[in-house]
Amino acid sequence: MNPKCLGALLLSIIVYGCFYxxxxxxxxxxxxxxxxxxxxxxxxxLHHLNNPDKNNxxxxxxxxxxxxxxxxxxxxxxxxxxxxxxxxxxDVRLTKDSQLVAMHDLTVDRTTNGHGLLSDLSLSxxxxxxxxxxxxxxxxxxxxxxLKEVMLLAKDKIVVNLDKxxxxxxxxxxxxxKETGTQHQAILKGNDPLSxxxxxxxxxxxxxIYMPKVWFDTNPPHEYVEDYIDALHPPVFExxxxxxxxxxxxxxxxxxxxxxxxxxxxxxxDLCAGHTDEVALLRGPDVSxxxxxxxxxxxxxxxxxxxxxxxxxxxxxxR
Amino acid sequence: MKYLxxxxxxxxxxxxxxxxxxxxxxSRYEAPNASQAVAVDSxxxxxxxxxxxxxxxxxxxEVVAKWKGPLKHLNSGAxxxxxxxxxxxxxxxxxxxxxxxxxxxATLRHLSSHSFGHYIGSLTWIDRIEDDYLLMFVHYENxxxxxxxxxxxxxxxxxxxxxxxKAGWTLPLSLTEHLKPTSxxxxxxxxxxxxxxxxxxxxxxxxxxxxxxxYELEWIETISVPFQGQGIAFDHSSNxxxxxxxxxxxxxxLEMVFSPVPVLLKDLHDPxxxNxxxxxxxxxxxxxxxxxxxxxxxxIDMGxxxxxxDVRLTKDGIPVLMxxxxxxxxxxxxxxxxxxxLAELNLLSLRNGANRPTIHRxxxxxxxxxxxxxxxxxxLDKCYGIFNSIYPILEKTGTTHQILMKGKVTPQQLKSxxxxxxxxxxxxxxxxxxxxxxxxxxxxxxxxxKPVAFELIFKNKNNPLIKTFSEIRQSGTHVWVNxxxxxxxxxxxDDRAVxxxxxxxxxxxxxxxxxxxxxxxxxxxxxxxxxxxx
Lengths: 319, 534
Hints:
heterodimer, A: alpha/beta, eight-stranded parallel barrel, 37% helix, B: alpha/beta, four-stranded antiparallel sheet, 13 helices, 22% helix
């Protein structure tokens, strides 16, 4: 490393230390040194999430990099870490013996070489299955990971967004997060309004990082969002708007003023008013991802993490 | 070896029939002295006749300079660093004598001359290659023939800056037979280092490459053009080729797109070459739905050798791309392909690898072949039993020669099933090396039909037949292995290659595997490039 680089790194660590306010896992304080925080990758990502900035857009990879490895597999998560993705979205569901494993569908049919409902299979039965790759080949070397395995792999390296937990498995997930020491780097999410979530989970809601999802048909969206901001001050909202003049997008644009980040979902048309990954490939990234950034998205969930990262980096929008 | 030569000869001969490259006329000028050659630089073109050179503006064809001198037979010219190097001979006198005459491009003033005197033929063209020159000396079989010589004696040489010979190459017999009684009259170096050669008067040009072994230039392709032979020139300022017609005295500029297919076919017929060929399973399914037109296009854009596609028949007998018997997994519909009409299938969307519908539709085989035509080789799977419905579409789309069919059969079965087509298409037998008769089946095929490739499947990496791969390769047949999942390849599969490409792909290549069907074409291609195997 040349001296100039080293200088820049030291400076950035010091500056970072001054602004940094979130939890830390790798930093160590000793009696002899005032600042010895060496932020982990997760610390940096959380810093960006907690301090939404129009000049830095977080990349959220849907089900891991499922083009590269079976969806919701450890290999698909490792790939995201290697690419420099900020947040990996993973679906978790319960097995028959109440273990959380990474699985999108209710059944194991589509993504593994097994059959039937996941909830009818024990963890040991699930562990005998092999994940299929994206072209349906049954023989990949990957198996279905438990949430514990996911979090141990992700620890300090990448933030995890857990889907399919809402209103169902928040408590089970919390146990695993605490066990693995990763509660600060897991974003849980759900559709229900605050009152419903409170009645289900009580104080647990104050402990987890919770991301409310605001759908284009959430009615009325303003109240839904305000309730959450007042009670939980969520660092980030998932905003789903089917058309460009949806009130959800209008609210999304004001989230930064209220201290929350706006996550957009570029996966399919009616989640982002047609500003999808597919459009980015066909008509150029400015038309879709660029439009989302211009409309103040602080994070974009994508099926094309590699291409999105490239686009953001080229435009100085990813650090 | 003799057989290999015949096979090679037949393949190359077929290049004459199948022109894959395409061209578009950019401009055409009247040029009364265009009888021997045209040369070109960024702003001007130069028409050359026996003793006259005329310089014209590219934009209008307007004459800007002229030279007339005491020369008898200028053959061609090439602009090199602001100078026009012309091939000059004493044709049709014998013994043949040649010289290079050098002119200033700006004024057409004669600058200098380099004489070869009586040499190895009659100089027809000259061009620059790196810091050296290429010069072609030819022989005709007419009144200007030297005793006991003939067209086959035509030679291309490479010289240093002082025109001292450094190397030389011959033309293949198949070409000299084609050209008799004349020979190569013009030539130019293409940007990729290959040669574009021109005959005396036929309306065609030939793509040639330098051989990796030996002395004979490799005939890659024949392309029909509106030129009538004689001196041609590649225009580096506009990626086009200039030539002329003697009958109308016109100069023509063609924009040319050179097809990779003739090179791919040559590789497919020659497992001794060092390129390892890459076939993508169901197209680039990671980045577009499997068996979609976009998945094929991605493979073309990546520069792959081959794409593997699955074909099934609809209820109304139309071949479409589909892997499974049902459309459930890969489309937004449900049911068997054979129970759906094409019109019904056209209403559906293909799903991506995460099961979401995309904008892509189920392609017909015809659409797929038109996408691949002239761009990439195609391996068709799942259609051994319905080939009578497939073959007419291959013919209709002009892609028959790009197709590699396959099946797990014995030679006897294949002959009875594929009899009418075996001389028209390439067929690759699939052999499971765990099968007790595997060795016998391979030997029978080798003896009876000499396939271009065997698709070999082995569950166990210690299968004794792996040792025979080198013999198979040496006998002129490719060894094709699938790295898709571990039971096909003794565990040498794509996902393990992510961590260790050399340990997986390298092991297969060390064991004389020369074609790999992969689910990670990008990874494999990068590996081959770093190993200089591509």
